[in-house]
Amino acid sequence: MIARRQKESSLWWIIHRLGSLNFALTLLAIIAIACAAATFAESGFNTKIAHIYIYKNPLFLIWLAALCVSLFAVTLTRWPWQKKHLGFIVTHYGIITLLIGSMVGMQTGYEGNVTLTKDAPPTTRIVTGRSIIQLESPADRGLYVMGFDAEMAKPSTERPRSFAVPGTKWQVIATDFSDNLLQKSSLVADPAGSPAVLLRMSSAMVNQTVEIPLFLSGDQPAEEDFFGLARIIFQPDLPDVIPLSEHETQMVFAKFAPVVESGKSLSGMQFRLSEDGEKITFISSGGDATTYLRKEILKQAVPTGEATVTVEDYWPDFVMKDGRPASQSPNPANPAVLIRIFPGASSPSEEKPHLTLAPSEGGIIYQLGRGGSTASSGTARVGESFALGWADWQAEVVQAFPQARLETETIAGPPEPADAPGIPGFRAHLETTPGEPGPAAWVESGKMTALRSQKGTDVVRIAYGLESKPVPFSIRLLRFDVPRDEGTDTPADFRASVEFKDAATGAITTGVARMNNPASFPGTFWSNVTGNNYKFSQAEWNPRDLNETTLQVLHDPGWMLKWIGSLGICLGIATMFYWKPGGA
Fold it and tell me: Phi and psi at residue 473, in whole multiples of 5°?
């Protein structure tokens, strides 16, 4: 019968060829090789490479669609169906449904994140992992979105990437990529400007250099927060010198007795450092003990009621080198911390170290201290450096002008390690006439950049970054809690209480995203069944600010088809093995 209908009908000939075992095995081999390559890419590189080049590659979707067609053709080759074919047919249709659900999820679903802050306005947008560019067309002033991941498809002068500006014949051409764009600031003398100074802060211990420009606006001082460790204040004149209030210094070791600056603790407080250097126990003069995670309070002022304690520095393997504390290895072989105790319970901001400076002829005058007290003072001319007393940080006066303006230039910095990514971006120029490129500029992620034509008369604005998708509801953080294990400061759970508001109906619901227990919206039975749901799971948190949290968002419209297909596969296999129809 099979041979006869293939000979008599071209349709049946095609169906049997599509449903042949050889065709199915060929497709399965291709898909298996692609999945193996994707697994290698994920483990050797990152998940983004596997998704871009394999899972979301049109060829991979074509192979999956061809496999669905082959599976459907296999069931038709058994026509006319009999009772004994029931399990076989249900299994194959279950696989087809599962594959369709996977393709729907890959094409219409997405995974992203949202950062929420308590008391901040609600947000209606989710940041996904898809990189895009936005071009503003001068033809209609509209913003046009195009998918482009400069990190995956690195442009170069040999292999540039071109983008047509909608509504024009112009081209934006990308010719370079950097994963670590930096802002280089410089001061330029300007008779209409204000007093200004450019400081270069450097530390050999953390191998970091930071440039900080400071401007005066009338009599108003300029202030910068230095990584939360200290305050830098630039003002017209320095305040009167106030001697630094009496304080106590202790060098606390995990394996040895502490070293107290005066030989005896004036405050009566004692400190214990755990053997791994991860925890510090404060013991008050009355014997009350409180344990903190060292990394959470390092460089932070901790009020204790009777004094303010600051853990100034930490060395995992303490040793003295050239008369200065240092660490000879990153392993906690000999952990030690430097602790300062200030009388009174001042606020953390008042207890931060500060650098106060004022303009002077050819440079600056400065004071170093804490709160309203002064520890040291001096002068520094352009090109001179001075120690800050904040670990090994040094300050150099790069530029100082009585009247100046600030010019900032984006440059490509050295490549960043994978565990500390910098700001990515690409270098591009505008061509309004072929062969006549305009000035090139770095397009930094998260910022709008203006590209000009060669004559400077035409401008196109372009932005690069992660896609921000709107959602049909708003989300707001009500509170964020971090319960601790009893008797310790180790987090036992993370609980983000959030409020959802439906944009269509105005209905408000609340949910709690906990560890391994996501919140969802709409969260109804039918939305969970169909997959028309958004799941919010805890992703990141800021131990220094419990009013902020980051939630991972998962939206998968193919969820229901995947489950129906999986259920069909199980039922079909069970039918084939355990159901024996009589008389079939």
Answer: -160, 165
Extract the tokens encoding 35.
Answer: 């999945």
Instruction: For residues 339 and 324, give the distance between their C-alpha atoms in angstroms, rounded to a whole number.
Output: 16
Q: Which residue has the tokens 């749901």?
A: 533
Architecture of domain 110-125+469-557: Sandwich (2.60)
Nearest 10 degrees: Cα torsion 433, 437, 439, 440: 130
How large is the average pLDDT for residues 366-387? 84
Q: What is the pTM of this model?
A: 0.61
Weakest-pLDDT range from 152-161, 362-371, 575-584: 575-584
Which tens digit of pLDDT belongs to each residue from 107-148?
Answer: 888 889 999 999 899 999 999 888 999 999 988 888 899 988
Please, which residues bridge with residue 484 across strands?
491
- Kindly tell me if the per-residue pLDDT of 306 is higher than 80: no
Distance CA 64, CA 70 (A): 10
pLDDT of residue 347: 44
Give dist(CA 388, CA 267) in Å, integer: 26
Strand extents, DSSP E, 413-447:
425-433, 436-437, 441-444
Which among 447, 456, 453, 457 is positioned nearest to 173, based on CA atoms?
453
Domain residues of the chain, as ranges? Answer: 2-109+561-578, 110-125+469-557, 248-348
What are the distances in angstroms from CA 7 to CA 1, 17, 22, 80, 533? 10, 13, 20, 18, 50
Angle subtended at Cα 31 by Cα 28 and Cα 34, rounded to the nearest 5 degrees: 150
> What six digits make up the tokens of 80?
């006319």
Gap between the Cα atoms of 517 and 133, Å rounded? 35
pLDDT beyond 60 at 584:
no
Q: Where are the beta strands (DSSP E) in 54-180?
A: 110-117, 123-136, 143-147, 161-164, 171-178
Percent of the chain at pLDDT above 90? 39
User: Whole-angstrom Cα distance, residue 55 to residue 50?
Assistant: 6
Residues 6 or more apart whose Cβ sits within 8 Å of residue 522: 500, 502, 509, 532, 533
- CA separation (Å) from 420 to 1, 3, 182, 415, 416? 67, 65, 14, 10, 6
